[in-house]
Amino acid sequence: MPLEALYAYPEQAKLGRILPKNKLYEQIKPNQALKNLFITQIEQIQWQYVLASRTINLIHSSPVPEIQVFTLTLKGQQLDLTTLKAIDQVIKFPTLFEVVKGDQAQLIAAYKRPNEVDNNKWVISDYFLSPWLSITSARQALPVAVTLAHLYQQIIHSLLPYVAKPTEQLEDTIERISQINSKTKQLSQAENRLLKEKQFNKKLLINSKIKQLQQEIAGLIG
User: Fold this and answer.
1) pTM for the whole thing?
2) Which of 30, 67, 96, 130 is 20 to 30 Å from 159 by CA-CA measure?
3) pLDDT at 35 over 70
4) What CA–CA distance (Å, rounded) separates 172 from 177?
5) Taking a C-beta distance cutoff of 8 angstroms, is the pair 91, 121 a contact?
């Protein structure tokens, strides 16, 4: 089920610190193209909350010692997700982004987990986005959890476009969604080729591929 309201974070977890872009650049070391995205698309970055055992009284663990919540205020209508990935790569904790555009906000997050080979690095999934939600409407309580890891997993689940299958682990669900997205892209490309193709025999081959992809996508979704 899509997220219907933004989350209410505990007041004791509030940090409310503006994060200067120049300080961020020192860590990210962006090329000019990435720097231009930060300049043209993002008005302000705030480090809003730190969800940790000391602030919300949940048990921490090595995969999820803390959860950082950032607010990004946009200058215009668009945000290139490359900017979020650049921030995620230098923040050594799971991260949630509230992206604000006018009187609406969108919760965006990738699933982050420690790299099994190098614990100083993180594996970052694709990004998952909530609908645009009113920032003036009442916020909903955080999911009930006893550990930060469980809280983080539930928040990520609330952003996923498809529900988990029974007994499916979060990592498996995310991998399945990645496959759905990849095959959906292939399907779109095949449909475009079919529209342009003139030869009947080639049309048959493309049509067969389209049906195969449709079946594979349906199986992954189901």
Assistant:
1) 0.91
2) 30
3) yes
4) 9
5) no
